[in-house]
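Q: Convert this sequence to structure tokens.
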Amino acid sequence: MKIVDNFLKIQNLILLYKLKHKIRFAYPLLWDDIESLYENEIKLNPSLVDTICSVLPQDFDCIPDEEHGTPGEARYQESGWYKKMLGRYFFAGYAFCRNKNVLDLCSGFGWGGKILANYATNVTCIEINQTLVEKSTEIWKTENITWLCDDILKRERERERERERERERESYQNLM
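A:
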């Protein structure tokens, strides 16, 4: 039920967005409508897109991999995938982050946090790689972003180990 409610909220938000920006639409709203919303947001923010696309993994002293990449990399520019990379953050920013405090976990090269900061009141970006945190702080100078280095999954692993120990204690007590 909650998924349906959230989907309806997203549909209504997109509908209002399209009316505001005089974009043609059909009802019910589909993936194409979400896509047109973020493509329009990209068009409305050309200097931000240019800034983000000008930054490459080499600027972070890192080699890109499957988990970390920047929209400016040739592999994403040539395939057009960079639009989807940017679009998901523009959509999330517009749909969910306006005037909110936002937590961006596993923020990588930080360009997503930079986009979200244009919508949010404050953004806290957490990344495990200290080099990426330091370089993001330097490259994406934005007053409403806080950059932190932490292993967010470590805490979950610790909680899971504690739950496992508790289950073992209960099993042992049940045997006695």
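The helical segments are 2-20, 31-44, 46-53, 74-79, 81-97, 111-116, 130-139, 152-175.
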